[in-house]
Prior knowledge:
Radius of gyration: 28 Å
Number of strands: 28
Number of helices: 20
Strand order of the largest sheet: 3-5-1-12-9-10-11
Structural class: alpha+beta
Distance between the termini: 72 Å
Amino acid sequence: MTEPLLGRSINRLEDERFVRGRGRYVADLAAPKALHGVAVRSSHAHARIRAINADAARRMPDVTAVLTGEDLAADIIGPLPCTVTQIPMTTPLVVPPCHALAQGIVRYVGEPVAFVVAANIEAARDAAEAVAVDYEPLPPVVAIAQAIGPNAPSVWPQATGNIAFQFNRGEIGPVEAAIRDAAHVVECELVNNRVVAAPLETRGALGEFDAATGRLHLTASAAGAHGIRNPLADDVFHVDRDKLRVSIPDVGGGFGMKNVLYPEWVLVLWAARRLGRSVRWIGDRNEDFVGSVHGRDSLVRALLALDRDGRFLALDTKVFVNLGAYVSTVAPVVPTLAMGSAMGGVYDIPLIAFETRGVFTNTTPVDAYRGAGKPEANYLIERCIDIAANQIGIDALKLRRKNIFRRFPHASAMGLSVEQGSFRHAIDSAVAAADGFKARQKSSRARGRLRGLGYACFLETARGTPNEVAEVRVAEDGLIELKVGTHSNGQGHETTYAQIAADALGLPLQRFRFHQGDTDDLDSGGGHGGARSMHQGGTALLMAAEGVIENARRLAARLLQAGVDAVRYEAGMLRVAATGQEINLDEVARASYQAPGDDVAPGLTHQATHLCDRYTFPNGCHLAEVEIDPETGAAKLDRYVIFDDYGRLLDPRLTLGQVHGGVAQGIGQALFEQALFDQQTGQILSGSLMDYALPRADDLPDFEGHLTADFPSRANRLGVKGSGQAGAIAAPATIMNAVMNALAPLGVRHLDMPATPERIWRAISAARRDA
């Protein structure tokens, strides 16, 4: 029996090839005869296309084709669909057609209007610059407030007032009554700033077409093969699903933005079929900024009602979310079901009314970004608590302790049953970790600095797409193949899934070979998203491994001429205790290829489906200390401490690494990052890493991370709770609470993210003028 691997921190298996430069990304794929595609993108946020003149481009050397929206329509290529149209909206969801190449009107800077295909990338780029597009500019609408204002330009004629939908959850009447009768009512207006995902690897794709079989094959830097294959086949190309294969190699980060369907996926497949040649497209960094979906971007207005003792009575939340120019693949889920599920956080708020409206603007579409709705919900309640504490003179920690869930399972006002969590323990641990703050604050003051301390709790509702599929097979070469319908963007799945299977089968880690991201491997799969992989995919893999054991026991029983009930499996051996007979798994597997019988598949293969729509509830409390230079507004994050509950820890180091990554992105949103557009023209002002401020190593402190495993989830057999998104959920409120705590002595009462030096300096200057 091998030593158990689950619960231990081991070196990641995939890092052996990554650190040696042997990762296999889309740009690394060998396709020697492939043509190269370049998208011609709109330079206007809103304009009518009068004409496209591609004659000069078509005559240039090595150019194979210049394709336009007219060609797309002629080939009856359908628009990119929104795949989540069944949400119970209060008003009908407006989903305008989103074609891979603009049809008549462009609606954001960066929208593809033509696709140039050439023998090499240099020729394609030169020809793209030679495509002349005659635009008739139209007035753009950029910001939420502008879009919902009177006489705003219309992005889509079918969307009255630029509203794509309205979604309501919770009864407003009782909430309004509670607010009317409350001893205290706190009003909050908060902005969740738009961000760019900016993964290390930009998007890219290779389209192939087999004329003999009529089969299309897309290889893409994406995060869910089946979620991309199905709408491409069903809605765009109108072919049977088995006629379109999607495969995904290694992916260098995604954070949600690689989960969705993009015009370039359509263009490379369409061009490959039309031209009879493989077509490759690799996006550059600027294209990722203007052509890949952005995240967040919402305006929240909320009322929090409290009684005289500081107990929460009701929360009324009204949200406007910027969808951009189109309704992206899963965008409507984010500000509705996802955000609504987490509304109220870890607090017992009896009455919640939640209303959200999706708003069209002439900007890059917005879709899922790490946490997808949960960070927005958590930011709202955690900032509201600190605002309430300042307004009515109650300690913010006392407010939190007074109102956290106390009895489990807890029925939330949003209709979820929260099984358990370490809420009080996490808060108490965070408070203990802040010991000595007063002395550090005094030291900062002596140097002319302001030091602030901030806390924030969080509760994630983690599940993602319900259900998952996995398959385990003993291959003829003796290795054991693991296939799972999820997808890693760098989270370490190759390691953790092997740990699960190795423990289930009692075999060394080196025996396992991991596969993901190929629609030819599995019939279905939920891909990446929602911190679901171990909860959904890990449980499915465990079930598949157990199925392999059962198949092995049946075949071993025949080989050993014993009853199935008499055969026991342990660490690769099958034994009949009564007779002392035994046979190892490899021998049984070889027999399965030679004479498997009707009830045992070759390789002892077993595919399992984990049917589960239950949530897990990762939770915790974070604290941050910031130091601000009041003369320049520069804020330095000096400490960041984590006390989190992710249930059973399969690999503690990997889990903490995921949390650190999420925290880093939350820090970026709180202090540095914002996707900005010119309000008059709709031009992006932060369209490169020269203009968009990502946090760097020296902007981050050494994280102090503490994880408890005392509260395993009951929602899956592994006892896990998703960890991939939690850091990005907790960090923004934690840091902004610390920033506001530092600024409070100067009279600063409000500041929106990101808390850049300029914003902090302006807030300090305004407070000094008003003093």
